[in-house]
Design goal:
The complex is a heterodimer of chains A (127) and B (406). Chain A has 127 residues and is mostly beta strands. Chain A has one helix and ten strands, in the order ββββββββββα. In chain B, the strands form three sheets. Chain B has a seven-stranded parallel beta sheet, with helices on both faces. A four-stranded parallel beta sheet of chain B has the order 4-3-5-6, sandwiched between helices. Chain B has a three-stranded antiparallel beta sheet with strand order 2-1-7. The two termini of chain B are 38 Å apart. The chains are: A mainly beta (127), B alpha/beta (406). The interface between A and B is large, with 49 and 62 residues.
């Protein structure tokens, strides 16, 4: 497999990434020793502060509000608040940098309305 | 086709298919019953339902009088479906008041040399009479189709469509990279691999742009992505809530960028040779190309099949079951739980990548699977008669603001 696996329980897709993807349902308190790996944020141990479900992401290092999130060695979004190392990273603390509605008179507070899985379906259905 | 077919030699990538009068090769031998508008969809479905299994209808919801721009796109798809080499013969069914001319569609398809008939419900004398006349037409077409025999064909004669639906985090990590590896193998053997779903290039378009063979292709790719992104704003769709879809988000995908970066992995690593408009003809021996399509998977698949794709490779993390009436759809999942729960709907278990197997090995098995299906092996979607079909409609608001995409 491409990427660096962490104890067969998570995968980091590229060395410069700031998040890992869970390959199992992980419990809060789970520790990962990053010192044995040679990616950029290595050299320390992180402890999950949240449970992280299969396929979901957690931060490998502290990420400040407004900082870009990296996966696949690419930008996947921007932190909407400070994220601690080991914290679950998803729609509650990350937002796309793309395809925002044009200045359409909206209050610009869409992110606050978002709760996982409760958005109206898109006109085109599930992709 | 869950078990990789070790009989297939990747050094000699051939299969046996149905060579049509125009030289193109079908991997299936279906008679297509194609309604021209929604008013003929029920008759088309009844005709196919009453006939042998390999008579297939393509029911859809397009109106009698679609506006300019939208109409041309519908027409292109309807003609492309009949012309697809998997189709041995086609019957176009219309009410008789459509602005799209069934005779013109039939004439276009007849240029490929295959038998084509038309049926007008009004002229036939109503629904019952149309069903009688239609079943006679279907009988004539099936009699001719029965004469077709499989013969030797080469992987370079394949146009394979890559698609994803119900994506989750495993799509970008396991399934799509494996499909990309198979796409690279197909392109190396001289075939055509096509990805679409332009909204799912947003955030990853710079990677595709770097792969464009020429500046001209690069410009058309970026223009297509830009158009889809502006369209989202125009439709009042906030991608931050709707893309990734709620299902994608449950599967761990946070942003459109993350989904896109995973999605484009389906297209492998070879140069991007061309950008084709929705439903338009895909090149034979064309290498890796993109079709500019919406993100809705059923419409996206139908567009590529109208473009001439004979096979669809469809990745799903969360467990999509959809197929297509004209082209076999190979279902690939990278999610071990989905594979276990929905084995009956899946063809390839790419979650082997998550447990340490190389993308290259899984890609090789998948490519063998593609050649096997080309030679007649049935996919899960075919066994279950999953035959979803839908044509992309261009909303008037979008046409007015952004113009005809072609």
């Amino acid at each position: 497999m491409k990427g660096i696996t962490l104890d067969d329980a998570a995968i980091v897709m590229a060395e410069a990434d700031t998040v890992a993807t869970a390959l199992a349902d992980l419990e809060a308190g789970r520790e990962f020793d990053l010192s044995t790996h040679d990616f950029d944020v290595g050299g320390h141990t992180i402890t999950l502060t949240d449970p992280v479900e299969f396929g979901h992401k957690f931060a490998l290092e502290p990420i400040a509000e407004g900082e870009l999130i990296r996966k696949y060695d690419e930008v996947i979004g921007e932190a909407t608040r400070d994220i601690a190392a080991g914290e679950w990273v998803h729609t509650h603390n990350v937002e796309s940098t793309r395809a925002r509605p044009d200045d359409d008179g909206d209050d610009g507070d869409d992110a606050a309305d978002e709760t996982d899985g409760q958005q109206a379906p898109t006109p085109e259905g599930e992709r | 086709m869950t078990e990789p077919d070790t009989q297939i030699d990747l050094d000699d990538p051939t299969f046996r298919g149905y060579r049509r009068a125009d030289g193109r090769v079908g991997v299936r031998n279906v008679v297509a019953v194609i309604p021209v508008s929604v008013t003929a969809s029920a008759v088309a479905e009844r005709l196919a339902g009453d006939a042998v299994e390999w008579v297939r209808a393509t029911p859809h919801q397009m109106p009698l009088d679609p506006p300019d721009g939208a109409r041309e796109q519908i027409q292109t798809v309807l003609e492309g479906i009949g012309a697809n080499p998997n189709v041995a013969g086609a019957l176009y069914v219309s009410l008789g008041t459509e602005r799209i001319d069934a005779e013109a569609l039939a004439d276009g398809v007849a240029e490929t040399g295959k038998p084509v008939e038309t049926l007008t419900i009004r002229d036939a004398g109503g629904t019952a009479a149309a069903l009688d006349a239609g079943s006679e037409a279907v009988d004539r077409l099936t009699d001719e189709a029965r004469e077709a025999r499989r013969e030797d064909a080469d992987a370079s004669e394949l146009v394979v469509a890559m698609e994803c639906g119900g994506s989750d985090a495993t799509s970008g990590i396991a399934a799509n990279p494996a499909v990309g590896n198979a796409c690279d193998r197909l392109v190396e053997d001289g075939g055509t691999g096509v990805i679409s779903e332009t909204p799912e290039f947003i955030g990853a378009e710079h990677i595709l742009a770097d792969r464009c063979g020429t500046d001209e292709v690069r410009e058309r790719l970026l223009a297509a992505v830009d158009r889809r992104e502006r369209m989202a704003g125009l439709m009042g769709v906030d991608f931050r809530g709707a893309q990734p879809s709620p299902g994608n988000q449950k599967g761990g995908l946070t942003t459109i960028e993350e989904k896109s970066l995973g999605a484009i992995a389906k297209g492998g690593t070879t140069p991007l040779r061309d950008v084709i408009s929705y439903g338009h003809q895909l090149p034979l021996g064309g290498g890796f190309v993109v079709m500019d399509s919406p993100g809705y998977d059923v419409e996206s698949v139908s567009g590529k099949v109208a473009g001439g794709a004979q096979i669809v490779v469809f990745t799903t993390g969360r467990g999509s079951t959809t197929g297509n009436p004209i082209a076999p759809v190979i279902k690939v999942t990278g999610n071990p739980n989905t594979y276990e729960r929905m084995t009956d709907n899946m063809d390839v278990d790419a979650s082997r990548v998550l447990s340490g197997e190389s993308v290259d090995a899984v890609g090789a098995d998948l490519y063998r699977g593609i050649l096997g299906v080309a030679g007649g092996e049935r996919t899960a979607a075919e066994r279950h008669r999953m035959e979803e079909f839908a044509i992309n409609d261009i909303p008037p608001k979008e046409l007015a603001a952004l113009g005809d995409p072609t």
